[in-house]
Amino acid sequence: MASTVTLHLILIIGAIIMVVPFVWMVLTSLMTTAQAFAVPPSFIPNPLMWVNYPESFNALPFNLAYMNSAIVALSVTVFQLITCAMAAYAFARIQFPGREIIFFVFLATMMIPFQLTIIPIFLTMKQIGLLDTLLSLILPPALFSAFGVFLLRQFILGLPLELEEAAIVDGANRWTIFWQIILPLLRAPLAALGIFTFIGQWNDFFRPLIMLNTPSNFTVPLMLNQFRGQYATQWTLVMAGSVIAVLPLLIVYILAQRHIIRGIAMTGLKA
Q1: Is residue 49 part of a domain?
Q2: Residue 39, in any domain of the structure
Q3: How many domains does the chain have?
Q4: Which long-range contacts (CB under 8 A, 24 or more apart) does 155-162 make?
Q5: How confident is the model at residue 271 (pLDDT cuts 50, 70, 90)?
Q6: Distance (Å, rounded) from C-alpha 190 to C-alpha 176?
Q7: What's the predicted TM-score (pTM) here?
Q8: With pLDDT > 70 as the criterion, what percentage of the chain qualifies?
Q9: Range of the domain at 189
Q10: What residues contact residue 64 under an 8 Å CB cut-off, 6+ apart?
Q11: Residue 266's pLDDT is what?
């Protein structure tokens, strides 16, 4: 009983730590600049400055930024799900020389900081003429994800071999088995991976900062950065824009949290 109470207490404290910054962001977005920097701090906006939201949205071309973020996030998610599913099936079921070594190298890439790979990616995009385009944000993550391959491989390893053996007896080849048997069974982990990928791409700030120069190509996080002035920053508008930026992610997570939990549980990743 004591251990259960302690665990719940720790979880409650952790939840509060996670929620407080978001609540503070929402409250600040409804304040005047004077209230936001008042000492002692004012926790309740008075009056409620709802005008900060349309001002924030209209101050910069957020409609373009939303479209760019949606194109990048959706494109990377779709292509990554396809490539990761194929690679995971190959590592889980197809015997070929060096399979375990190659898979180990795949996993080892997860330990390489992204900052070490951004320079070669930048130079490659420049050489092939894709710098300052949305394709420079889509291609690198769309073609490779060690985490995605690992997540899906764990699930495939738990599927009974009898399903594939029966299909082979019926004359199915590997391609048919993958598309008609394995892929439909991957719905739960694919949903979890898709949500993780979409959220990660939507929130990505570093890669767009390095790859993009033209404001019309900016994604939402990069567009929010434009609120920073040389001498002053309108933090109330920044917070209002941040709330607008995070709303799609909240909606996606609320609608799909069941799939996230189910997908992770079914892959055994939590172990």
Answers
A1: no
A2: no
A3: 1
A4: 155/88, 155/186, 155/188, 155/189, 155/266, 155/267, 155/268, 156/88, 156/89, 156/92, 156/93, 156/182, 156/186, 157/92, 158/266, 158/267, 158/268, 159/185
A5: very low
A6: 19
A7: 0.84
A8: 93
A9: 56-267
A10: 216, 218
A11: 60
74 belongs to a structural domain: yes
pLDDT at 229: 66
pLDDT in tens, 7-40: 889 989 998 998 888 888 898 888 888 888 887 8
Nearest by Cα to 236 from 43, 52, 55: 52
CATH number of the domain residue 126 falls in: 1.10.3720.10
Q: Does 33 map to a domain?
A: no
Q: Is 142 within 8 Å of 80 (Cβ atoms)?
A: yes
* pLDDT tens digits for range 94-131: 888 888 898 888 888 888 888 888 899 999 999 999 99
In the chain, the amino acid numbered 36 is: A
pLDDT of 234 over the 90 cut: no
SS3 string, the chain, reads CHHHHHHHHHHHHHHHHHHHHHHHHHHHHCCCHHHHCCCCCCCCCCCCCCCHHHHHHHHCCHHHHHHHHHHHHHHHHHHHHHHHHHHHHHHHHCCCCCHHHHHHHHHHHHHCCHHHHHHHHHHHHHHCCCCCCCHHHHHHHHHCCHHHHHHHHHHHHCCCHHHHHHHHHCCCCHHHHHHHHHHHHCHHHHHHHHHHHHHHHHHCCHHHHHHCCCHHHCCHHHHHHHHECCCCECHHHHHHHHHHHHHHHHHHHHHHHHHHHHHHHHHCCCC
